[in-house]
Amino acid sequence: MNQAQLDDLIAYLRFPSVSTDSRHAGDMKACADWLRGKMAEQGLDAEIRETGGHPAVVGKNEHRAGRPTVMIYGHYDVQPADPLELWASPPFEPRIDGDKIYARGATDNKGQNLAHVLGLGEELAAAGDLPVNVTVLVEGEEEIGSPNLAGFLEANKEELACDVIAVSDTGMLAPGMGTFTYGLRGIACTELRVKGPSMDLHSGVFGGTVANPATAVARIVASLHDGEGRIAVEGFYDKVAPLQDWEREAWASLPVHEAETLGLTGAPELFGEAGFSDAERRWARPTAEVNGIGGGYQGEGSKTVIPAEAFAKLSFRLVPDQDPAEVIDLVRRHVERHTPAGVTVECVPGHSGPAYVMDPQSGYGKAAQAALRATFSGEPALIREGGSIPIVQTFKDVLGADTLLLGLALPDCQIHAPNENFSLENYFGGIRLNRELLRAIAAG
Amino acid sequence: MNQAQLDDLIAYLRFPSVSTDSRHAGDMKACADWLRGKMAEQGLDAEIRETGGHPAVVGKNEHRAGRPTVMIYGHYDVQPADPLELWASPPFEPRIDGDKIYARGATDNKGQNLAHVLGLGEELAAAGDLPVNVTVLVEGEEEIGSPNLAGFLEANKEELACDVIAVSDTGMLAPGMGTFTYGLRGIACTELRVKGPSMDLHSGVFGGTVANPATAVARIVASLHDGEGRIAVEGFYDKVAPLQDWEREAWASLPVHEAETLGLTGAPELFGEAGFSDAERRWARPTAEVNGIGGGYQGEGSKTVIPAEAFAKLSFRLVPDQDPAEVIDLVRRHVERHTPAGVTVECVPGHSGPAYVMDPQSGYGKAAQAALRATFSGEPALIREGGSIPIVQTFKDVLGADTLLLGLALPDCQIHAPNENFSLENYFGGIRLNRELLRAIAAG
Fold it and tell me: ipTM of this model?
């Protein structure tokens, strides 16, 4: 263990860099300044860059023609620490207990991006140079949805041009198990707004002769699936790329167990599309979920009305090669076909983004695997994740480059929750991983 | 038009006797005192009676053996007048415009119960006696659910014993059309509480592998009806008494038109059980309604969660001879059979009461029809109503007597709303109706 590197992490974690809270604007600035200084100390040419919102910090080695350019992305902003009373120690006074360091931002994302920065410093100190061109981009607005990232990339497109991006901001399946996330699900959101009578009606006076919008929204939602959990929207699966044999085989041997999912969710039992495993259903099969449903009386007890309207907020998780706009269109047509008599339904589209997948056996994919293999014991796990990481698509859209997701977050790291922590083993592992990754890319 | 009778109505309507608002406790008392005095002035033996809540006013003529005893029920409490700004004139400063008097409580129920009291006074003045024994009971808690009525009846069961009860607190189909309501629907309420995961889950991370309680509640609700609006709960219709031929014929000729229902509800079209008319569906067929449905994110935009739970508040309007407890039991069994995998459902029973129906061709029913025929031009309309009036069942349970519902409320009377009004023609008609009713009962 390198005490100086540990001290650096402690110093970084002391900044309450909460991007969403304007009272912390000064802390954001101070944190960015500190990071710029740290990058410079490691031997990078580092600058604070204005974005229109919280500043970004950009650091580079000397870029030379004839070798690949790697962008390393991270974020120095953190989630708010509330509720404070649930923390065992103050969130911005880092505490080490056993192999873990506890502080807001420890895993998400300061510990992980600082490991990369210090890895660059180690390599520069040891070899006098890096094996590739590197641009480190650490932004300050990830926790508020990166509102200025696309604009910043666009405005500095030539300067930030790169061949591949490396991000450590995802999960590791188990301690010591290097994990390469090569795919993410996309998303398409829409809200159904069902309208019936022009006001809430007395269900005694009018019940039986007008359609009830709450019943109607339920009938439409019920029509989205068959009884076996398969989505019943006509054409929904037409463009779904089947899971490949190697994926099914590889995932079957991973330490992803139904019992663990049951424990994490507290659900009475697992339920999903027949014919697929827990991991397959979460990582590589599309879904239709109701994120919110409502209509009529919401208070205690009863109020015997026929509500004037009801809604369902739907989101569809997408997989390659589904197109979000096409899916929303299929859903709209399905809803039109399944709208009961006596009501009208409007489909209001929400945000969307396609699924992301890269070939883990591509050159960069193999480099990522090699780096993980050299850093951690055993074969790296090749997984996809069920969520969506919008920045990955932003990078693809603006810079045209794939992203290597090499996560160092452990399942019990408590990101976004009290007592967030980061494994020191993974912190020092992350420093090694950075050096291995750049070497592997250079060798590729 | 009798100016003294009109002045009495104006005086009665000036009391802001809002039972739900403790700031009006003094007004309630003053209103009850005024009414007691008015009953005494008409020649009744009248008393303020404590009930445990707002007092009731009870007035009687001299009861003699050998003739029927008729209870006349009404209430002197009124709904709150809010929102005040929507009133064209202050709600407790009665205003006459054309044939209508505008004030809170004008139709519901002061105008209607005062008409009965003044009818008794006219008859006593003209004939020196009433043709039957009469007990007038005007309570002060109807608008808050009559919490002390059953106890008051029970405690004074012998004193209040009667053969039949007359209530003017329902609707008249059209101006000048005497309307006898001989049936009401019952009700049975239950709330479905669907539980899945122990907390809201990230729909990206876990979507596809756990059941979604909002989807589950929608599937259960959707299972309650078939596509033609018929209730699909096994056994639900087993005890439903069929509509009688004379009812279907009589109702078909009433001025109850689908166009009017469309106008009143603002629904895009009418929808209900196939094979029945608008009136039949509202008055004499049972329903399954969702009064409220909810679960997950309720705010603007989207939040991509799988909710931990969802609910549906259900109410079933019942008709003779359905038993509320049996219906709730059938529903619970139906829900058990239709609960999707991966969730648990609890059925929490709510309030309930059976349907009410009396034979309009019984002796009292014929007397009611005769009185309406003598008071208004033309044949009275014989109808049922779709709502439930709990006091009717309370009277049946405690006193064992049927209730004659002889409503004087016009469709545009705005009860419970701003600009409540009462037709003066119906006010003076109500005075005549009272005298005709007592004579018809005595003659029966």
Answer: 0.90
